[in-house]
């Protein structure tokens, strides 16, 4: 099962300091009790929200670091793709997996799959026994739909204003955090369904 889906920046923008990352969108699947331990379960709703935001910021920084290392090691200059070049941007995207140990930052071990497209990173935190190949395919599919239908590559494309549309994508492609095996016919039907909704 996928525990959390996150979209965050991987390059400094505006007032952000170098190496800093900003969480633009996050969605926790299922009860958040799985993310907290011991005394943390006694926190009120606002304290839980703040603690959850801190934990997501830790994950975003770890992914930011992994993306930076991958890009430096590749030696390729980062070429910002423009709107309309979503397919090319996805082909050039960096990706990877991080194993987050217990307590770093969640009480249970999780796998963080990430896909960095230009200055955005799409991240799924999965339970450690999850099928990572299926998770990677789902993450690429989600990122493709976000980029194509929500036009996230353009200047000033604010993810925060499109959160309800990202929610709809997640409900179709990752229902309740469950990874879904798609046959060809079902995948085509899903594509039409998503395209029809996004074109409204």
From TrEMBL:
Gene Ontology biological process terms in this record: double-strand break repair via homologous recombination; endosomal transport
GO CC list: AP-type membrane coat adaptor complex; cytosol; late endosome; lysosome
Protein name: Adaptor related protein complex 5 subunit sigma 1
